[in-house]
Write a structure and sequence with these properties.
Layout lengths: L2 H12 L6 H20 L2 H17 L10 H19 L16 H6 L3 H13 L3 H12 L4 H8 L3 H31 L1
Helix pairs in contact: 2-3, 2-4, 2-7, 3-4, 4-8, 6-9, 7-9, 8-9
Length: about 190
């Protein structure tokens, strides 16, 4: 959906055609749900947060000026709705992991099937803070540019780059820890 289509739909909504919002929901529901699911690791919570995000977007549609893309604006609403939900429900799942391991994660990953890789990546993501999880999700899974991420998360571009670098290192350490423990349990 291009910028002109979104602009036309928003004009229809502002003119009183409230059913036109369903077009925006249909166009963005997968994107919103995907982000919610990746940040919460729960289908029920993701559905609830996605619905709340769309309600907030609808209620705040008068604030949308069109300077950023609609998807960026909606991502921002969704991101903060997820963060608030996680904080309110104390669902952060961080764990401290040691930084130094002798085993090579790349060698271990090469031996694991593709679906097992996804499973380990999901487990590792669950150990990140919500903000870190969002950074990884936006950049790698949703393939959003750094500039857009900075708009969504209200950070400077350089801050996004620094936090993304630190989060990658942390995620690498978590993956190494999880995989080392898996290898150890198979050998024992």
């Amino acid at each position: 959906m291009d910028k002109q289509d979104v602009s036309n739909i928003i004009s229809q909504i502002r003119a009183g055609d409230y059913n036109a919002f369903s077009i925006l929901v249909d166009a963005h529901k997968d994107m919103v749900y995907s982000l919610c699911l990746k940040m919460t690791n729960s289908n029920e919570n993701a559905e609830e947060i996605a619905q709340d995000s769309f309600v907030k977007a609808y209620q705040g549609l008068h604030k949308f000026k069109g300077k950023a893309k609609f998807s960026t604006w909606l991502y921002q609403i969704t991101y903060y709705t997820c963060i608030n939900f996680l904080r309110k429900n104390k669902l952060t799942t961080t764990t401290d992991f040691p930084d130094n391991f002798e085993d090579s994660t790349a060698e271990i990953l090469d031996q694991i099937q593709q679906d097992e890789r996804r499973n380990y990546i999901s487990k590792a993501l669950a150990h990140l803070e919500p903000e870190e999880r969002a950074l990884i999700t936006f950049y790698y899974l949703e393939e959003r540019p750094v500039k857009e991420i900075s708009e969504i998360m209200k950070m400077s571009i350089s801050n996004v780059k620094v936090k993304l670098h630190r989060t990658r290192k942390k995620l690498y350490g978590i993956m190494r820890f999880l995989l080392k423990n898996e290898v150890n349990s198979l050998v024992e």
